[in-house]
Write the structure tokens for this entry.
Amino acid sequence: MNDLGVLKNDALSLFDRVAAKLPADAGEQTVRRLDAAERRLRESGSVLVVLGQFDKGKSMLLNALLEEPGLLPAADGAATRLTVTVRPGPVERIVVRLADPDGRRPDEEREITRAEMAGYVLESAEPAADRARATELVVELPNAKLGEDLTILDTPGTGSLFSGHAIATLGVLPIADAVLYVTDALQPLLASELAFIKQIAEGLDLPAHPGRLLFAVTKTDQATDPAAAVADLRDRLKEVPGAQDAVVVPVSARLRLIHLADGDPQDLAASNLTALEAALWPAVRGVRERLRLGTALNELGAVVDELAQPFEAALGVLAARDAQHQQSFDEAAEAALADLAASTEAAEQVPAEVADLLAAHTERLTREADVRLARLWEDLRDEYRSDAKLCDDPQQLMDLLASWLALLSTDLGTAADKAVAGVRDEIVERFGHRVRARLQALLPAAPMPEPFVPGAGAHSRPSPVEMLVRAAEAAAQGAQQGADAADRLSAILATGLVRNLAPAPGTMTVTLAAELLKTFQGKTADREDPGAAKLRMVGTIVGATLAFVGALKNALGLARSEQIAALDKFFRDWEPDLRAFFAESLAELMESHAASIGTQLRVFLESRSEAARQVVARIEAARGATDRGAERAEVEARLEELLVLGREIDRIVAAAGLGPA
Amino acid sequence: MGSVPELAVSAVRVRAEQALAAVLERLPAGPSVLRRTLDLEAEALRGAMTVAVAGMVSTGKSTLVNALLGADLLATGFRPVTYVPALLLYGDLQTIRADRKVITIEELRALSDRETAGPQTGIRKFEIEGPWPALRWFDLIDTPGFGSAYDADDSRTLAELVRADAVVAVLKTANLSADEAAVLRRFQAGEGARGPLSPISCLGVLTMLEGRWQPETPELDPLRVGERDAQQIMKQPEAARLLLRVFPVCSMVGAAAATLDETDFGDLEELSKAPVRVLLKSLITVEKFGGAELPVSSERRLALGHRFRPYGIHLACGLIRDGVDSVEQLRTELDARSGLPELRSLLVNHFGRRRDLLKVTRVVTRVSALNTDDLSADARERFAVDSALRRVADLVRDDQDLAEYEVLTRLYDGRLVVPEDLAQEFRRAAGEHGASVADRLNLTPSTPLAVLEATALDRLAASRDSLLVLDPHAVSVLRAIERRYELIVHRVRTARALLEDGI
């Protein structure tokens, strides 16, 4: 067990000890909070996202990493069409998700065999009859490497026709634990790959979390000079902020698979897979484990502080001199009662206030979206003016735009998270939040934002990993639908608008974007989590953008100046639609935030009431005590027990490197 | 240009040269943009045809050029090695120049490798002359790859491509990458070569297929795997619109075969005596082959492995075991199994045979676009030049080969849409599947002349009676087919007359 595992066990035993200290009449919310925090600490779970250009051997490498030859369909020169999610399960089970062609009914899920996978996943294989409807594939299997809790997303490579999936994945990156970027030793890094790596680095906030991006250089068995490939990659990575010291491991998945069959230790050594695993697994698990430990300890600390409050209050009363006895009792009891009343009153008023505050933020974010979109549009215009390649290659142009928009949506989503957290903290602060700050601002830009109070809603909420996987699905589906829509759209455009490629403003593009949005809304009718809403925004935007690749192909035959004019017109006409889209999505996102923040604040205020009630009760007990010396000794003993627990929490925080520097 | 061995100058080229000369004569005296353009066109017409080898970075373009020539000329490797374009010409003696300055082959290797020389050498182009038979028909240009992280390479490559008449697109995988598709689209849009490329001026090569061979399944022929991939590539619209077809080759085996010497042969002979199972097991990687318990020094094995790749070693040892017993014989057999002989012959047949057509069409396209408005204030003078220019443009209408070529181009780029069986018949008659009379009629080479004549007459009659004549697109194809069948009938009759006279 690693150090973190030891600390985690220590923390779990602390939960038991705190629970034992709960008074018999402890409030319902306090019990729930402890319960939820403990469950979160126990549940664990991490997500690894695998990215890279197609035909670099991502699927084969995963087979080698999981020691499962033949699990993921892989063939030389064949591209993977779908995002494949691999996660632990008690028995092997492969499910393909099939979209309803009309988008009216919910997706169908069908169980298939390993042998059938290729027909859905591999571009070059004999296609399954309903391959076109497949949006996603999930593999559940018992596997030592996955353990209880590791989920892996294998994306279709970039640079292929299915690049939308990978671009949509950019939206998931802020909450993924780690990314394994796969390249090979046969070809130096292409300019297009380097550009994508830069975007991944941005999505991961790599300068703040340098360990989250790792590189595998595959196919060393076929290369004449694998060392040159590694050197070339390192050289290129100097240009990527945060990636200068990234882990780069040359490997041969093939040799590892041969070793699994023949058992020749030389093959294992030559495959170098052990080195990759030694770097990869800790990187995947480390970040989230620490974060999870930090959040759990924070919550535990808060409960301990609250438990101590009544004793502190009672001690204050008991310590007072005789002359002031009566007055102290009265004052303390009054203050506690006032606190109780304030919390109850606030519970009624706060929702309206929160709605006002959030509305102001929504407006501000919408303005920010407009400004950033305008700037992005300007950058795009510069880009295709200065780079002739982009004019001739609608796929490349729209891939670029889609990834920019994906990152913009992600940024806006993060800004919305921050704004909401600000509103929450502001209200909490008003009630004199007395919890000590044990953690150094938690972790910098926490990769997996945890709700402030994992309270009442926590029972029904999916785990963060589950949320992430769902979000990735939403993003991939958006991209897939965008690609499908592209076919339809280019068919429409080909009939009437062969040369005049820009549709009239507000017709085609609005219809399409609205249609795409509606399809998603139909699928997620129930109130969804803000995290999922955010990712749906990313997926939709990527999908809608890629849908226009076909439309732009009509500009190919034009002269350069005409191309630029046509592109200018196309994007000018599209901008209002996009602005409207962002405004609408942000409003929706904030609405789902409002729902979740409402729950959180209710839980918080109820906890406050309970705490106040405890204080009142303890003061009453002190007032009624016949033997004040004995009462005082008991209160002191109880308080000391809680302080010991608090110090133990501080020790674990420090040992895990989470405390103030 | 190097001393190109004279091919028979075709009638169409003579007419094109005359037509251009006529325009030049009528031009007002003194330098002008028009004169300079026409001078350049005339010069291009006289020069050899230029075929550029282009593709993404590290797809093995230099390896392919080496293999095509049967020489170990250009540096090859993982990094974008070629950063300076190299023009390869036919010449009686091997001469190498770096921007006109004569250098040795060792200097070339050092200078053409970014690793050792770096891009700061300032050299803009290498010219390499030598007596390589493949170059009798066209010059080759080896270009830096597209898409490397070095931006300058892309613009250099494009500058070179603009000078080329035809392009060999080097591809690496069964699915075109977005980058590759983009390069092909740019060619099609007219950025590669002088004007837009089409299947007439562009074919694809799938290289480095030896990497697909695995000792776990030694009987699997990588060329067969490559053939499947090639078909997959041709299913993609970017490829189908642009490439005549995609050829699978084991270019490294081809290049190694070309440089095979007595020492190599001796070592391979030793290695072929090792038990097949042991040899196969060692061939999982080159490093394993170098480290295995086998005859010949480990160092030599590594060197051979890097040159021949595991597949080449496996092939060579198998051939020796089957009785191949000389350097010459092994070289030929390996070359045959690399797929290169087919590629060479296609290059000669497809590009070589058409070189005058390709060149003249290009000249016509460009001359037709010339503007004479600013040429002279004198309307009569302008009229004279214009009518001379029109004669150049009319070349396409008046010449059977050119007319047929024009129809073929329109079919390939989709401006003409006709039923597929008609398109296929036309492509065949126009010599896309072989230039002999039997090939054009889709008959076996041994078909007697009388049968050839009867078949051609039948087809001619069928074309004339076709109901498709009502379709404006089909009618131009039908006319071209008819003219071709008429020529075939004429040629077969002449042959019969000569033969029967002789008897």
About this structure: The first strand of chain B starts at residue 50 and ends at 55.
